[in-house]
Amino acid sequence: AGSKLREVFDKLNNLLSGKPVQTEGQTVAVTQHPQGLEFVCYKLAEKFVRHGEGEVSFHHDSAFPIAVVLSGIWELHPRVGDIFLAHLHKKCPYSVPFYPARKEGTSVEEYQRMLGYEVHDSKVEEQDHFLKRMSGMIRLYAAIIQLRWPYGNKQGAHPHGLSYGWRWLAQMLNLEPLADVTAMLLLDFLEVCGNALMKQYGIQFWKTMFFIQKYYIPRIEAVTSSGQMGCLSRLKNFVQKCLQAEEVPAKGILTASFWRT
């Protein structure tokens, strides 16, 4: 509910502003310790990324309420936004976007970690689980760049707005595609913020969509084995439908009626 989100936002904002906040039966304030504020910024940013790889990966629409709170906090407390990006880029290098290359002397285990895989006791997580987590984080990022906290000061610019998403898309299409990962990330990103990019960039956006269909999808196909075609087929269908309808569907946007709940 909108009222619940406002409660969460106010509590976080008060905590970061140095006001005393009630939690689990006790009152806490960042002023109680010289590094209190740094610690809270770090842990809060880390928690938002965890929401992406956990909650959003299972419930896609949860990206929007989580993102709108982070967007508002980022606007008032830029340090949280900076640390959020650092955590996000470390956990999901594709959010840069960046495909780490294996350097000489780097162990397989260390390289897997650089690619974003979780490695425990030399066991690498399953591909499906890895893709789900990456998907959740990209969806959260794509939601953040287009949302503003509706009760904030609208005079200033969005702290990390759509221009960053446009840049992400352009850089992504300049990278050599990877099997599995590239098709999934493009689809997630376009499903979440394609509508906002279409409204902002108009004809340039449609040129990009045409480029994806005509030139980039065949490049993904060239590196994709027959057993990995699922996500690529969904990306193909999505781009084709958008180009035919000359419209990108808007998904999961928080309407005015949501904020009255």
Describe this structure in words.
The protein has 261 residues and is mainly alpha-helical. It has a single domain, classed as Alpha Horseshoe (Serine Threonine Protein Phosphatase 5, Tetratricopeptide repeat), CATH 1.25.40.510. The chain contains nine helices and four strands. The protein has helices spanning 2-16, 36-58, 63-76, 78-91, 108-114, 127-144, 162-173, 181-222, 229-245, and strands at 21-23, 26-28, 119-120, 123-124. A two-stranded antiparallel sheet has the order 1-2. The chain has a two-stranded antiparallel ribbon with strand order 3-4. A hairpin with a 2-residue loop joins strand 3 (119-120) and strand 4. The longest helix has 42 residues, at 181-222. The protein is globular and about 60 Å long. It starts with a helix and ends in a 16-residue tail after the last helix.
Task: Give the structure's gist in a few sentences.
The protein has 261 residues and is mainly alpha-helical. The chain contains 9 helices and 4 strands.
* Domain unit count: 1
Could you report the average pLDDT, rounded to the nearest whole number? 91
CATH architecture: Alpha Horseshoe
Number of strands: 4
What sequence of helices (H) and strands (E) makes up the elements?
Answer: HEEHHHHEEHHHH
Number of helices: 9
* Span of the ends, CA to CA: 5 Å
Q: Low-confidence runs (pLDDT<50, min 5 residues)?
A: none
Beta-strand residue percentage: under 5%
Structural class: mainly alpha
* General shape: globular
CATH topology: Serine Threonine Protein Phosphatase 5, Tetratricopeptide repeat
Could you estimate the helical fraction of the residues in percent? 55-70%
**Describe the biggest sheet?**
2 strands, antiparallel
CATH hierarchy class name: Mainly Alpha
> Order of strands across the biggest sheet?
1-2
| CATH homology-level superfamily | GLE1-like
